Amino acid sequence: MKLSVAPLFCCLLIPTAWADDNGGLKKDTAPPPPHALDEGYRGTEDARIMTVEQAKEMHDGATISLRGNLIDGSGDKYVFRDKTGKIDTIIPQSVFDGRTVKPDNMISINGSLDKKSTPPVVRVDRIQK
């Protein structure tokens, strides 16, 4: 039993001795300061909500996130406005989840752009006050 454990133990140690230092994180240089970054993910600094103007230029089926106000509408059809313009939205009552939204309430909506409709509409699947 002791003889079979010793060769096994040696086989596990040998590969680490032959491993060469080709990849992974090398900590020999300091990272650039945050203000010098020009590409890549930077967390909440990069997260931004698009405008209605930008949303209208997106492709059909694009995921849309907008921040502004619901200014008019009833049933499932509403008009959403931000500082750059207006866009029609379709918001099922289930998305409101019992919440009341007034025209002076700033809200965020998430959904998908339907450019097959004329004019384009956003099919909203989430509202956040």
Question: What's the topology here?
Answer:
Blueprint: H1 2-18, H2 52-56, E1 63-74, E2 77-82, E3 85-90, H3 93-96, E4 107-114, E5 121-128
Parallel strand pairs: 3-5
Antiparallel strand pairs: 1-2, 1-4, 2-3, 4-5
Give a short account of the largest sheet. Answer: 5 strands, mixed, barrel
Report the total helices: 3
Task: Calculate Rg over CA atoms.
Answer: 27 Å
CATH architectural arrangement of the domain at 48-128: Beta Barrel
Strand coverage percent: 25-35%
The CATH class of the domain at 48-128, by name, is Mainly Beta
Strand arrangement across the biggest beta sheet: 1-2-3-5-4
Helix share bin: 10-25%
- CATH fold descriptor of the domain at 48-128: OB fold (Dihydrolipoamide Acetyltransferase, E2P)
Region (Disordered): 22-43, 107-129
Organism: Silvania hatchlandensis
Protein name: YdeI family stress tolerance OB fold protein
Keywords: Signal
Brief digest:
With 129 residues, this protein is an alpha+beta fold. The protein has helices at residues 2-18, 52-56, 93-96, and strands at residues 63-74, 77-82, 85-90, 107-114, 121-128.
Task: Explain what this protein looks like in three dimensions.
Helix content is 20%, strand content 31%. With 129 residues, the chain is of the alpha+beta class. 12% of the residues are buried.
